[in-house]
Design goal:
By secondary structure, the chain is mostly beta strands. It has one domain. It is built from two helices and twelve strands; from the N terminus they run E-H-E-E-E-E-E-E-E-E-E-E-H-E. Strands 1, 2, 3, 4, 5, 6, 7, 8, 9, 10, 11 and 12 form a twelve-stranded antiparallel β-sheet that branches. The chain starts with a strand and ends in a 9-residue tail after the last strand.
Amino acid sequence: MNWGVLSRFRRYVEASEGEISVEGGASRHGDEFVFPIEHTVTDGAVLGFSGSVHFRAHGGLLDLAIRNPRISWQVGEMGMVDVAARGMTRTDFAIVTRVEHVDSHSMTVRTKLTLEGVHLLGNVYPKDLELDPIRILSGNPPAEIR
């Protein structure tokens, strides 16, 4: 899974002389964080990814780690992106709003910030703000969207 999370949040952290780090198998390639696939459940209805990205700034006042993102696809609905943050509690960070591209090698989806995501980002960004697109490479897309 390749995901930049939110470009203006990344720019804010870096402009405020903060740092963005990755661990647990995640890596950074330009403006995207790459989370390796960890598992799939029920023909791709849940895609789990490993690794974390940690945003820190203002001497630790801004301190957010997004760990092990997971996309859950519901029948008749698009999907939900949840992450482990603030300890290991899973939080519904974003809702998948549309699928832009699907083929046998990749899928690109658009997401919007949930209310829980607003709280994780410090109540600075509004609910339903469009986040950076998520690209899922290799493997088959979930059967619900083929």
